[in-house]
């Protein structure tokens, strides 16, 4: 952990990289993904997995197919033999031919939008029986949620729509086990928790995009600008935002609203900005002021009470995290330098990122999960101190051992050059002694300006 003095002073802003083209997942990566999943199925004794998707919960499905069913629903059925079937609604039938893994197509209009034609209508059970699921010994249902309750039988918690779960219950053999199998994807040693060089390059596109957007929006903050104008800067290249975009000034959630409005930014306002794309989220919270003297009377010690200890924790996190440590070790570090009793954070101080903003987390109290090379983390610690505005500098980094770093450098030299520039900024301009295993995917990692109008001032270590 850091023992350096934290100072708010003149710091140049980080370099951004506009117009970086996305990196597509290779056929080799898709084949590797499928092989990993089949191995995990065999180890856990599953004959079949049924992987659910809709627009908000499609990442496990997309992991092999490369697409989500957008406004419809879908199922990917994968057998332990490796054969794959997709069950799709009316408007996604055309997508089967583009699936990254070869699939057999089955049509179920039950997965379509309300009042659409129900041609080829039949019970979902008929399709499942046709696929032989009534002869299987152990079937895994995969939604999106990893249930981790210690007081419940989470293996029988299913987060798929009831009509789908009911179809599996009705079509299976009475002795067939039906189990929540999300852990195969996102649990401890889940197949999606570790990324190869191609996957890291693929996800860096979104992290770069989000951090470029957040810095652009931060630089645009002025008294009189609207939330909507800032929100517009938090979208980029037509990409799908993986969280609700936040550009909220002053009092939040008026009339339960979550979205940017035409409210104007006022001097002294608290302001929150957040954007995320596949592979990365960037978030900032602070005051629309230029100096400490402009802080509200009841928050004159905001820097000492909230922002400075938070930044110290971010530095400690970045300097300490390493491949091979347990989630408990990282959790204990944060608890030591930023005690929950004093700062009232209540979520995991770091979680995994991929196609979705929050996939799962190995970082929790008592965790024996090992942090592995290829994991992509969001540095996500959220203090909540009564009477004080919050603070935030959420960004994404990957963990990569020497072997993985060498592979990235060889196969993606332009990406490696961006990584080197980001590391140099953190080490030389912010004076953070980064863990050797850190690969920054965002441009604005640890770049924290608590006063939006002091655009040349940020926290750094002395």
SSE layout:
Blueprint: E1 6-10, H1 27-44, E2 48-53, H2 59-65, E3 74-79, E4 84-88, E5 104-107, H3 124-130, E6 138-142, H4 162-171, E7 177-180, H5 183-186, H6 197-220, H7 227-233, E8 246-249, E9 270-277, E10 280-287, H8 302-320, H9 327-337, H10 340-343, E11 351-352, E12 376-379, E13 392-399, H11 402-411, H12 413-429, E14 438-440, E15 457-461
Parallel strand pairs: 2-6, 4-5, 6-7
Antiparallel strand pairs: 1-15, 2-3, 3-4, 8-9, 9-10, 10-13, 11-12, 12-13, 13-14
Helix pairs in contact: 3-4, 6-11, 8-9, 11-12
Characterization of the model:
The protein is α+β, with helices and mostly antiparallel strands. It contains twelve helices and 15 strands. Strands 8, 9, 10, 11, 12, 13 and 14 form a seven-stranded antiparallel beta sheet that branches. A six-stranded mixed beta sheet has the order 5-4-3-2-6-7, sandwiched between helices. A two-stranded antiparallel sheet has the order 1-15. A hairpin with a 4-residue loop joins strand 3 (74-79) and strand 4 (84-88). Helix 3 (124-130) packs across helix 4 (162-171), helix 6 (197-220) crosses helix 11 (402-411) and helix 11 (402-411) crosses helix 12 (413-429). The longest helix has 24 residues, at 197-220. It is globular and about 70 Å long. The protein starts with 5 loop residues before the first strand and ends with a strand.
